[in-house]
Design brief:
The protein has about 220 residues and is α/β, with parallel strands linked by helices. The chain contains seven helices and eleven strands. The chain has helices at about 20-25, 30-35, 50-55, 70-80, 90-95, 100-105, 205-215; strands at about 5-15, 35-40, 60-65, 85-90, 110-115, 120-125, 140-145, 145-150, 155-165, 175-185, 185-190. It has a nine-stranded mixed beta sheet, sandwiched between helices. The chain has a two-stranded antiparallel ribbon with strand order 5-8. The two termini are about 20 Å apart. The relative contact order is 0.17.
Length: about 220
């Protein structure tokens, strides 16, 4: 390990249906190969250690539901504002915590998904075709959950998915699905894709997620 080694902290837990340990473990070797020293925590109390967060270059969060305290949320936001990167996918980053400060940080909040696993397509944003997270990738289909989210207009949306007309809406709805944003000196990457491990077997999903982790890191 050299002094140039970056530090990644994987915070995982909450509802086990999103398999936080299995899926985050699948990304640990990738981060280590890119020179990160990776630590994991299965307790949100890690967000109470402001000094530890400040020394971290990337926080990968996979925590569905659960409760974050005001102190934990404030420390996380402060670390990102100072330059620590934050990244995550699916419920692990948008279906967690009832905390306004946290939702302002991540730029989105899960609302619902249609029942079951469905075939649906993700369209990459033409205006961001040269963004390092999606450059060279094509639109792709996934058989999984499709998330309806409320999002911040300041997000840089890299991919969308379209909901067909249904009981709650009488016309198609184009929904942000992958986005980035800045928070002070820090970067935030969010993907709504990734309910189950085999979602990441889709090459575009794996690639944009890996790239998103690197992009968010200090």
């Amino acid at each position: 390990m050299t002094t140039d080694t970056r530090r990644a902290l994987v915070v995982r837990g909450g509802w086990d249906g999103h398999q936080p340990v299995t899926i985050t473990d699948s990304f640990v070797p990738f981060l280590e190969e890119r020179g990160f020293a990776v630590e994991t925590s299965e307790d949100l109390a890690v967000y109470e250690d402001a000094e530890r967060l400040a020394a971290t270059d990337l926080i990968v969060q996979c925590w569905t539901m659960g409760t974050i305290t005001r102190e934990q949320s404030a420390n996380l936001a402060a670390a990102v504002r100072a330059g620590t990167g934050l990244a995550g996918w699916h419920g692990g980053i948008v279906d967690c915590f009832h905390d306004h400060g946290y939702h302002l940080l991540t730029g989105g909040k899960f609302v619902m998904h249609r029942p079951g696993f469905l075939d649906h397509t993700y369209h990459l944003s033409p205006g961001h075709a040269d963004h390092p997270i999606i450059a060279g990738l094509d639109d792709f289909a996934v058989h999984s959950e499709q998330y309806w989210v409320l999002t911040d207009p300041h997000n840089e949306v890299l991919a969308t998915t379209t909901f067909p007309p249904g009981e709650l809406h009488d016309r198609p709805a184009v929904m942000p699905a992958v986005w980035t944003r800045t928070w002070g000196a820090g970067r935030v990457f969010v993907s709504t894709i990734g309910h189950k491990p085999d979602d990441f077997d889709v090459p575009q999903v794996r690639t944009l997620t890996e790239r998103g982790l690197l992009w968010a890191s200090r």
